[in-house]
Design a protein that fits this description.
6-stranded mixed sheet, single chain, alpha+beta
């Protein structure tokens, strides 16, 4: 569901909106919103390798913990996203979609393809192998992106990227200005912050 600043203001506590306190009826499932047609087509493929080739990603910039007062020049959606392979983790966020630059779109989609059914369906934060982290960092580096501070969020279907202005500009043709998109008073914005964060959302294999 689209959430405006007017809606979010009802839940503000000392300037912040804790994402976990938002009512469930505000949230849309990404499977219904972004991947409904994909699920039907994926189930038609006889092997995981053939499923993998059909995977694509949806880039978003998201708040996971708390939301500052937002400017009105972006559309924000409250989302639930399933990830983590067989672990079927549910991640709540308030996010805005990013339109991928044509020069990087294939590279972003390839990350979704590469890590589909990763670790035999067991890639999630409590079960990450060092080799998976290394492969993911390498995949991002190949398209000049990074997850120096956000790699701990890595799961199948949920691919984190540090939310720097540089990364936003590389990913999106409609990249927001971090300085102008919100009223940051009372918030700590630093290079190591995981809120906001960039995610590449993709279908979960389970």
């Amino acid at each position: 569901m689209i959430v405006t600043e007017e809606v979010l203001s009802r839940f503000r506590d000392k300037g912040k909106v804790p994402v976990r306190r938002l009512p469930s009826n505000l949230f849309s499932n990404t499977g219904d919103l972004f991947f409904r047609d994909d699920v039907v087509s994926l189930h038609q493929f006889p092997t995981k390798e053939e499923e993998r080739r059909a995977i694509h990603v949806v880039p978003v910039m998201a708040f996971l913990e708390s939301v500052p007062p937002l400017s009105n020049d972006r559309e924000w959606i409250a989302l639930h996203h399933q990830c983590g392979g067989y672990h079927c983790l549910q991640v709540a966020m308030v996010a805005t979609m990013l339109t991928p630059n044509a020069t990087i779109k294939n590279g972003l989609d390839n990350i979704g393809k590469q890590f589909y059914f990763a670790q035999h369906g067991n890639l999630e934060p409590g079960n990450m192998l060092a080799s998976s982290i290394s492969e993911y960092v390498t995949a991002l580096r190949e398209i000049e992106l990074n997850c120096e501070c956000t790699w701990r969020r890595l799961s199948e279907g949920l691919y984190p990227i540090d939310c720097t202005q540089e990364n936003l500009n590389k990913i999106a043709s409609d990249a927001p200005s971090l300085d102008m998109m919100a009223d940051w008073r009372g918030f700590t914005r630093a290079r190591y912050s995981m809120d906001p964060i960039i995610f590449l959302l993709a279908n979960n294999s389970d």
